[in-house]
Design brief:
heteropentamer, A alpha/beta, B alpha/beta, C mainly alpha, A: alpha/beta, six-stranded parallel beta sheet, 12 helices, 44% helix, elongated, C: mainly alpha, ABC transporter involved in vitamin B12 uptake, BtuC, two-stranded antiparallel sheet, 2% strand, globular, binds adenosine-5'-triphosphate, binds magnesium ion, P-loop_NTPase (chains B, E), ATP-binding (chains B, E)
Chain lengths: 317, 257, 331, 331, 257
């Protein structure tokens, strides 16, 4: 039960959101989703973000700072499964709503800390990687050489996406190399160039985010192999969609961060209305290829395919 | 050379400093010091540690700007903002710490701040050949035993360094050369060489200001002695009119000037 | 010219009370106290701008958040007092966290695992010390190298994945508190007090300052500069290992990611605390206040809802301003 | 005791050819040449382990990839020669890239935008110079502060988003080549040559070395140390601005992301190149070779498919080994 | 005191160094130098710049380890690895650069390396009160005009620093005190004070080794003079048997020993 939930059910939640680093367009879209929806629905919302993708304690500190204020609903996108658990403990203890988006909170850790999460909204990063894997297996002949470029070595999201990709491709293609490019476009370019030297027959690249995907596209262009090499990445940022349209990226797995943020705010509203949330809300993911790139761009940042939003009915809209 | 008193109207006066004061925070290093130097003479400046000798020298050579007081060179008032201005006005100085740069070669140190260049417009390059041969000549002319001008100062012994610093100051034909304790750390042979240089400078009409704690040296080389105490020049004496005991008494304040 | 100026008393070295007063009116007074002054200024500004800033809850949150940085600032302060710098400090903390996590998942139990974590960090410290003291490698480069090495080792050992650590002791560490002060900050303060006593009340501390002041003179007086240097880098690493435990407790997992911001912030805290990077001047309270200042800055900016983009700008400006103040410090 | 030992010739300062030979057998020879020796060693090792390493294509790729680091290493070398350090170099590059990107999207055209980018970077350099020369702030802290400030400004100006830049000139810059050598590396080499000539053949270069050798002596000889320092930080920033253009050309977009690795690598390259962080000893070729060494190391490790986890370890070990060599350098 | 030659079997011999060699890379600073010191005497060590005097001193005080040669103190061979060992063997040294730490206070410098502590076990803390009063007493006993022992060395003038360094070396009752150019940068008054300290040390039975470029001083204060040239002690003379001219000749090599 939310602290701010009024008897008449018309109470508005006061939303605090803590998300990952804003140095990545993905999370900026998420912020826009939160702020845009909050504004449209007349809800007050504050968004704070970690300094960068490695700033686990900084993110926890920010959450702790906000926890002391009179917010009724906390939307959190933790950098890792556990880094916000301790900071959330007092929030949970005060009976405030916790909505977990994007990166799931580690279930065991949450249990140990006696933490109840109202709902989880998000895309399975593993599933997103899987979609990319399925695409690659179809796009290149069986047994082709494939390379993977991940984010900062040791990053959780990157690992999940890569695991999903690997599981999907199985033994249908040969993963010849896995390199880290720190989420950076320039470094991905260098790595991809090097990999193409070492493995001239490489037929496809998978990148753990769009920025690196665009770097690989550039490397492929420089090598004059545009069209010969399939490049897939995950995120669905505007630049990436444009590149898909222009024939650079072969495909991107759009995760609709805007929708994720928007759903987070709506979930808070549902709780404030005194209604119960489903424990798991899946936000859409979709593979965008050249065919649907135009639609995706025109709908951006909203999902380009209709999806079943369970919260719409709960909110009575 | 035979007159025993100096007068302010002396035509031979090349440099005179009047009422120079200089403070560093709460430390009053100079409290109105006045000295003068005459053409073709060696003028000595003596005084206890911390009396302000080096600070006065630094004012004369443009490293510090005096808080008050005036400096006159060849009859015209000067006001140095940088060491370069002092150099251009004809004041060369051998600082107490020599002011050599260890990682540069002898010739680079020689010409530091007045390098010769070739070319024109923005394309001016160092004329190292000319500078090397000129430096060689300047050191050679002083007949001091130094290694090739291309070797780094770091490889030079203390005596050799002192020689380079002195040759540098002496080699530009400047009318005024100041030497701050040039022989403090030197051995007998090196000291004798430096004294030779000072005599030769004097003979060629240069006014030399010599700071030294060695009274024998002072009385042997100089014609005029200024005694400093607590930031002022408490006494001026012609060298022929004084002796070591009087100088000690003046320095310690046992005797008023 | 032959007239005598009467010599004034030779009080060149004496400072009168009037001088002291004038100094205080000058900037050097502010410079010596950049951290406390800055901290008080920030507290005033933020408590005017945000009513939540000075609530007990927020103060408690700030202190807990500051604990790790306080410990790292104390560690860095020891190194900087000898005229060195420890660029590997945050990578060492990460490495210690991974060692702790692995030992714990290996079933060693909390206390033994904690020991493994601290010892793991200590190894990096000893390597730093040996490289710098015996190997005569510049501090900057030696610790830059071990930064890379420790990062690599943390990744290799953990296989690049976070290691969840769920232990009641760890939970106790995060949630326990005395009054409004959480255990992490109490630990940090205890470390600060010990560090202060060691620095200013023991032979070792005096030797640290002596080596920082002039290695040559210290050696001529019979001290072993090498031993002091090794000890200092070891202390820095051990404190980083202790900070690693707090880090794991806070985020609930040992993660191989490097926290570069801790490195730069630990140095900034020390400098804000009035310690010069050239060594020889020891301070412990200053760096701790510097760490609190940086934490309060980030906390206040978050409370005010200042965008993430403006936060580095604000931190940079505060560092530069404080440094401009510190330059008026008396030597 | 009254017997006399016959005095030998006073040749204390003279070095005989035999001494030189003995020195070469000693480590100091290797130390002076850590970068070329390391580079040759790496090339030998990698070309044995990987057939692709010495292919024309890979060499060309390596040179192009090295261009940015080469320029930054040259920039850092100027600063380090004066005894300073520029921690803001990569943040300045990022800021320059964003300025360029914004100007270009604003429709200023390539050349004018490039000018805006370089001037934007130059502003950071001037601030560094003024803080350090006139403000007497320690180089380390001043540039740490501007690192934060430049990062913040880049995020604010770009609103945290990459700015796509599609211009034919930029495309030409990435794809153009003479033989196997791409334009970026040619630009880097031209900059290296100019930097060498300026450092070793002009008054300004001599003054840079003099200020690094001994600021006090340089000033006593009529140089303006302040002016030299400001110039050096300005040069560093302008070169970072030029590197920013190559960076944008390379990825086709100006990104506000912070490139800490460029900062650490630029310093490592300079040290590998045999320059001491205490200043006074200028080198240009060494740092360039150091930059090539680091690029070759990363390229070779990728070619060999060495796990990403082992890469920081390898880089760290190379840096430490090279530093251990450099310590045997003669002064 | 009236004997004019020293013999190896002398019972008064407190220190003797035999055939000390020391090289730094290709620089052979010492090439087999041998000197000796006797109880209650001032032994002087003179020689040109770079002759190896300071290097020899550094070998005797444990800063350098000789490459070859032996050092005997009170009849037993010693081999110092660190300055601390030399101190413990009774050798105190005033280094040419004073070896003071500017950021520490006078009393901290005084006791550096031999601090007094209170408490027990691992809980030993500095006994600053005891050290302060002892330092005050040691400085006061030498009757040199110094500021409070709690002030930082940085605030002291050159002369005051020299006084602290000398008082520190003289204050521990060590049988051997070495002073490397203790008056090089000092003024008349300060020099007189230091000479007084040396005489007092000698009177209390201490063997003093004095390095100096000032022959008057050497002949005035010392009983035995060793002359170094190019890394060896080329001659030893009783002070009463020699004079300045002979010493100059020995130093320059104009006269073989
Ligand atoms: N840059 C400075 N900052 C502060 N105090 C200074 C500075 N330079 C000199 N002083 C002080 O000014 C006084 C005079 O110093 P100065 O060096 O002129 O003495 P000096 O006569 O040259 O002594 P010495 O014979 O030891 O060389 C001293 O008390 C010294 O400490
Ligand atoms: N640490 C060192 N490294 C290299 N060379 C050294 C070192 N110490 C001394 N030397 C060299 O050894 C020689 C002897 O130096 P030393 O300092 O003993 O001379 P000195 O007799 O004390 O001279 P001075 O009268 O100038 O003090 C010199 O050539 C000097 O350059
Ligand atoms: Mg002086
Ligand atoms: Mg000496």
């Amino acid at each position: 039960p939310s602290a701010a939930a009024g008897a008449d059910g018309s109470a508005k939640p006061k939303v605090a959101a803590v998300i990952k680093g804003l140095d990545n367009p993905f999370f900026q879209a998420m912020q826009n989703g939160i702020e845009g929806t909050a504004k449209a629905d007349g809800v007050s919302a504050t968004v704070q973000a970690a300094a960068d993708i490695g700033d686990t304690t900084g993110q926890a500190d920010k959450l702790t700072t906000l926890a002391g204020q009179d917010f009724s609903c906390f939307v959190v996108n933790p950098i890792s499964g556990t880094n916000l658990v301790q900071a959330l403990a007092p929030v949970g203890a005060a009976g405030k709503t916790i909505v977990n988006i994007d990166q799931p909170i580690d279930a065991t850790a949450a249990k140990a800390a006696n933490l109840k999460v109202a709902t989880y909204i998000g895309t399975d990063n593993k599933k997103a990687g899987g979609k990319a894997g399925d695409f690659v297996t179809k796009a290149v002949p069986a047994g082709s050489e494939v390379a993977i470029i991940g984010g900062i070595a040791g990053d959780v999201t990157s690992a999940a996406r890569i695991d999903g990709f690997k599981a999907a491709v199985g033994s249908k293609v040969k993963v010849v190399q896995e390199a880290a490019a720190d989420w950076k476009r320039e470094l991905a370019l260098t790595r991809a160039t090097d990999i193409m030297e070492a493995h001239p027959d490489v037929k496809a690249f998978f990148a753990a985010n769009d920025d690196m995907g665009l770097g690989i596209v550039k490397a492929v262009q420089n090598a004059g192999k545009t069209g010969d090499i399939t490049v897939v990445s995950v995120d669905g940022n505007k630049d990436a969609l444009q590149s898909v349209k222009d024939g650079g990226l072969s495909a991107t797995v759009a995760q609709y961060p805007y929708a994720v943020g928007s759903l987070g705010v709506q979930a808070c509203e549902v709780v404030a209305d005194g209604k119960t949330l489903p424990s798991n809300i899946e936000s859409p993911t979709a593979l965008v290829t050249k065919d649907d790139a135009d639609t995706a761009i025109s709908k951006f940042p909203q999902p380009f395919e209709e999806f079943d939003n369970p919260l719409t009915s709960l909110l009575g809209k | 050379m035979t007159s025993t008193t100096t007068t302010d109207t002396d035509l031979d006066l090349v440099l005179s400093a009047e009422g120079i004061t200089k403070s560093f925070g709460s430390v009053h290093a100079l409290r109105g010091a006045s000295i003068s130097m005459r053409r073709g003479e060696v003028t000595a400046l003596i005084g206890d540690n911390g009396a302000g000798k080096s600070t006065l020298v630094r004012c004369l050579s443009g490293i510090h700007r005096p808080d008050e007081g005036s400096i006159t060179i060849n009859g015209s008032l000067v006001d140095f903002h940088t060491p370069l201005e002092a150099r251009n006005a004809g004041v060369e100085t051998v600082q107490q710490n020599l002011a050599l740069i260890e990682d540069l070669s002898v010739w680079q140190n020689f010409f530091l701040g007045r390098e010769r260049t070739r070319g024109f417009g923005p394309f001016r390059f160092l004329d190292s050949k000319a500078m090397r041969s000129k430096a060689d000549e300047m050191l050679g002319g002083l007949a001091v035993n130094v290694p090739p001008v291309t070797s780094k100062v770091r490889r030079l012994s203390g005596g050799q360094r002192q020689a380079v610093a002195i040759a540098r100051a002496a080699g530009w034909g400047s009318p005024i050369v100041i030497m701050d304790e040039p022989t403090a750390a030197l051995g007998v042979q090196e000291t004798a060489r430096v004294e030779g240089v000072i005599k030769r400078l004097q003979d060629s009409g240069v006014a030399v200001l010599l700071i030294s704690h060695n009274f024998d040296q002072v009385l042997r080389l100089s014609q005029q002695v200024w005694v400093m105490r607590s930031g002022t020049a408490v006494a001026g004496r012609r060298a022929v009119d004084t002796n070591g005991d009087e100088l000690v008494a003046l320095i310690t304040g046992a005797k008023a000037a | 010219m032959n007239t005598t100026t009467t010599a004034t008393a030779p009080d060149v070295q004496r400072t009168t009370p009037a001088d002291v007063l004038r100094d205080a009116r000058h900037l050097s007074f502010w410079a010596e106290h950049a951290a406390p002054i800055g901290l008080v200024a920030l507290i005033i500004v933020f408590s005017i701008l945000s009513p939540s800033f000075l609530t007990l809850g927020n103060i408690s949150a700030m202190l807990t958040a500051a604990a790790i940085l306080v410990i790292l600032a104390v560690a860095q302060s020891y190194v900087i007092t000898t005229g060195g710098i420890d660029l590997s400090i945050s990578a060492t903390m990460t490495f210690g966290a991974i060692c702790f996590g692995l030992a714990f998942s290996g079933g060693l139990g909390f206390w033994l695992s904690a020991l493994v974590g601290v010892l793991g960090a200590a190894v990096i410290g000893i390597v730093n010390g040996l490289l710098i003291a015996s190997g005569k490698v510049t501090d900057f480069i030696a610790t830059l190298g071990t930064l890379s090495v420790a990062t690599g080792l943390a990744l290799i050992f953990s296989n690049g994945r976070p290691i969840s650590v769920l232990s009641p002791e760890l939970l106790q560490l995060t949630t326990g508190r005395i009054g409004i002060v959480g255990y992490p900050f109490i630990i940090a303060v205890v470390i600060g007090i010990i560090a202060w006593v060691v620095m200013f009340r023991t032979r070792f501390g005096l030797h640290v300052q002596a080596v920082g002041g002039s290695e040559e003179a210290a050696v001529a007086n019979g001290l072993s500069a090498n031993r002091v240097r090794i000890a200092v880098y070891l202390i820095s690493a051990v404190l980083a290992g202790i900070a690693a435990l707090l880090l794991v407790a806070r985020v609930g997992a040992a993660e191989p990611a490097i926290n570069t911001s801790y490195l730069l912030n630990s140095i900034a805290a020390v400098v804000l605390g009035g310690v010069s990077l050239t060594g020889g001047k020891a301070k412990i309270v200053g760096p701790i206040l510097g760490a609190l200042l940086l934490t309060a800055l980030s906390n206040g900016l978050t409370l005010l809802g200042v965008s993430q983009f403006y936060q580095p700008l604000a931190v940079g400006l505060v560092v530069v301003l404080a440094a401009l103040l510190t330059r008026f410090q008396k030597r």
